[in-house]
Amino acid sequence: MVKAIDDVNGKLDDQIVATQAMMGSSYMRGRLKTDTKNWDKKLNDISELMEAVMATQRTWMYLEPIFSSGDIKNTMPLEGQMFDQVDSHWRTTMKGVEEDPGITELAEKENIMVHFQECNKKTRQNSEKSK
User: Fold this and answer.
1) Which of 35, 53, 34, 60 is nearest to 103 (CA)?
2) Euclidean distance between CA atoms 35 and 97, whole angstroms
3) How far apart are CA 79 and CA 82, in angstroms?
């Protein structure tokens, strides 16, 4: 589980504001300006990824007890398969985060945002059907 998200988001917001303030400086030129723009993009990508991760976590926490029952999976096999895919991705990603908790490294993983967007789509479908 991702915990202390408020601390992470607070620090992330502080960094975004500080970076944007730097970009407003008249001394920001050349490579420094390019590097600062790249850092600003990375910070915004991380912020977007954190939103997707938290959305997945909230829905996963809601659905996990429901789909851990064999009866539900037998009743809703397609939804059970979708949840299993999300569950597998979630557990693999969180194990990797536990081993290397750096958010910038997570954000740099190939297709990580796409995977979380797909997970959120699948969990939304399952969540709507389980209500």
Assistant:
1) 53
2) 26
3) 5
Residue tagged 């600003």 (tokens): 40
Domain CATH for 86 = 1.20.140.100
Q: How many structural domains are present in the chain?
A: 1
Is residue 117, in this structure, part of any structural domain at all? yes
- State how far the Cα of 87 lies from the Cα of 80, in Å rounded to an integer: 10
Give pLDDT tens digits for 59-115. 888 888 888 877 888 888 888 888 888 899 888 888 888 888 878 888 888 888 888
Q: Find the DSSP H helices in 24-111.
A: 30-67, 70-75, 77-99, 103-108
CA distances from 15 to 22, 24, 96, 102 (A): 10, 14, 25, 16
Task: Of 47, 69, 50, 46, give the one whose Cα is nearest residue 58.
Answer: 50
